[in-house]
Amino acid sequence: MNLCAILVVKGASNTAARLWKKKDIMDKKSAQRKAFMTKDRVIRGITEDGFLKVAVVKTTDVVKEAQRRHGLSLLSTVMLGRALTGVMLLASDLKGEERVLLRIEGDGPLGIITAEANRAGEIRGFVQHPSAMININAGEKLEDGVGRGLLSVSKTLFSEAKPITGTVELTQGDIHSDITQYLYQSEQVPSALLLDVGITPEGEVEGAGGIIIQALPGAPIEHIEKVGENIQAIHSISEQFREGDYIDTLMEKALEGIPYKELIRYPVHFFCRCSHKRFLHSLAMLPLADLEEMQHEPQELVCHNCSEVYTIAPEEIQNLLEERQKQQTLN
Fold it and tell me: Which pTM does this prediction carry?
């Protein structure tokens, strides 16, 4: 092969390498763009006649993070995932950093389930017995994991000095039926609610999300019946996500046949505002005798909402003790 041929081959090879590299970069950017466009978000809308308001949320990564942090069993993943999704839908109707706390106290193996969310899209929660399971072979269902008990919803609003709390009996134990019952019984708002957490055969979270549609005063009965039929037709939200649908498509399906407009959308994520400083502040409230007993060894504290572990050094406790003793002397 002469020199000219070698140069041509080498030039073609370099060009091909540059093209493959450019394609690889473009593929990565495309994947990143797709991941961004389909990340966990909530979207709110209202029908053009003003009779129905709707919210749709994707919480796949939120539930995955909860599963990872708390070491959840499959039962705990599904039921806590539903609670986290449901509470975010409720919080999406608030303002600023107003927040909602959902507390489920059942007699099933899961024990207490709590989920909290604010209007900023921050969600956190835990289950009392994260490794709880049910015996499917014995005919037990998911709702048996929750059992009978009470559902409480507490809202912290800017306009109220104290949280507003409503409590109802658990009607089904599947969480979405119980929240629906709470909305109708405590807030007198007819609602259609669907919560879903899909699990792969390997035990991983495949998809999670929820839809809520609420009737406002004067809503035509045919509208209410229509959206009820639409939501029943959707059935599995996780399957919709797997097939490529996103929250926009789910809103279209939920309100099929009824004109609507989008109001707002924003990202949601698992987030807890606990910190080393906050735990120190909590320790400072303990009786002097307790601080004196704790001051010689490191104290390991765990946030029950996110399972984050904080280690408080003996010197930090001694400093707290000294401050408390000074305050006591001044008083």
Answer: 0.87
Q: With beta carbons less than 8 A apart as the criterion, state whether 184 and 191 touch.
A: yes
Alpha carbon separation from 294 to 118, 314, 317 (Å, rounded): 35, 8, 7
Q: Is the pLDDT of residue 183 over 90?
A: yes
> Quick one: what percent of the chain has pLDDT higher than 70?
89
| Region for residue 63 given its phi and psi (left: phi exceeds 0; alpha: psi -120 to 50; beta: otherwise) | alpha
C-alpha angle 179/94/98, rounded to 5°? 105
* Joined tokens for residue 328: 């006591």
Helix ranges restricted to H, the chain = 3-37, 60-70, 74-91, 176-186, 221-234, 237-242, 247-254, 276-283, 288-294, 314-330
pLDDT value of position 38: 82
Q: Which two tokens stand for residue 123?
A: 């969600």
CA distance linking residue 60 with residue 80, whole number of Å: 12
Amino acid identity of residue 107, one-letter, is: D
State the chain's mean pLDDT as an integer. 89
- Between 247-254 and 221-234, two packed helices, what is the crossing angle to 10 degrees? 130
Q: DSSP of 52-78, one letter per residue? A: EEEEEEE-HHHHHHHHHHHT--HHHHH
d(CA 86, CA 83): 5
Q: Which two tokens stand for residue 133?
A: 């399971």
Is 42 in contact with 92 (CB distance < 8 Å)? yes
What per-residue confidence (pLDDT) applies to 257? 85
Measured CA to CA in angstroms, residue 228 lies from 34, 55, 205, 221, 258 at distances of: 31, 14, 27, 11, 12
Residue predicted with more confidence, 53 or 19:
53
What's the pLDDT at 30?
A: 45
Q: Which domains does the chain have, with CATH numbers?
A: 39-270 (3.55.30.10), 276-330 (3.90.1280.10)
Q: How far is Cα 257 from Cα 272, in angstroms, rounded to an integer?
A: 40
Tell me if 35 sits within 8 A of 28, measured CB to CB. no
